[in-house]
Design goal:
mainly alpha, 4 helices, about 90 residues, Arc Repressor Mutant, subunit A
């Protein structure tokens, strides 16, 4: 039923939820507990290193935008100078 309502199945939903959790965890870990911003490319590279399945740039972008809309992270800068920082400093 999720596939009809949202356009994505339960498996995709779980994968996206896991990806959101890992992005938040890495932003906290690499950003000194969320007190410092992390370079977009560095976060994406570290996520790719630890993932058993490749993470596409579009998936990463979508997850980070969802986290920003939820108020969990703040994005600053443009292109290769983009940074991500946890809001509140806690994962």
């Amino acid at each position: 039923m999720d596939l009809i309502n949202t356009g994505s199945g339960a498996g995709q939903w779980h994968a996206r939820t896991d990806l959101k959790r890992e992005v938040t965890r890495l932003a906290s870990e690499l950003g000194a507990g969320g007190t410092q911003a992390v370079k977009w490319t560095e976060l994406q590279r570290e996520l790719g290193k630890q993932s058993s399945v490749g993470v596409e740039g579009s998936e990463f972008l979508e997850v980070v935008r969802v986290l920003e809309a939820e108020g969990a992270v703040r994005i600053a800068g443009e292109r290769e100078r983009r940074t991500i920082q946890l809001v509140g400093g806690v994962a």
